[in-house]
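Bench notes, afternoon.
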Amino acid sequence: MHLPRMHTTPHIVVAAVLLAVLTGCSGLAGRTRTAAESVAAQQSAPPPAAPLASYLDTLSRMAPGDPARQQAELEATLAAARQSRASADTLRYALALGSAGHASSNPVEARRVITELLASPNSLQPVEIEFASAYLREFDARVALYAELGRQRESAEQHLRQADAAADRRIEALASENKQLKRALAAAERKLEAVAEMERSLLEHPVDAEPEAPPRQ
């Protein structure tokens, strides 16, 4: 028994090709939609906590303008550093202590704390170490600036003391010279008074004429 031969027409071939194309496009669209949904999910997810967030928050609280807020933050960071002994809390305290613009600012002590922290084993991440090193350089610069200002102030005060001492010596010299002039003036006045007294005496009591010599015999 012979089965009838099936002839493939051009229309059937075209339909098969179209079906394959549509199927591929559908799969591509599905993969594109899946990728887009993945990106959207990543964008909507909360970002991971930054290692420097707590330090930036401390620096923000130590900004000038509110001494009470600054003092409260400094005391809080000190208490946390003493209680936990954690590297991050110690660094936060050093940053608060060395911040400029508050009454208790002490970059010398802050520099010492950071130097010891970085020199000893710690749990800081690389980005935290870079952050601490940057502020260490800032504190070094401020300490050097304060030292230079101190030297200039000491030099100015020394020059002022020298000028005051020179002025005092000059005043003493002028006073001594004035005393000498007064003594000389008093002596001259006494001499003038003596001469005037002598003149008055001569005028009041004229000297008698000398007697004539007796004639010769």
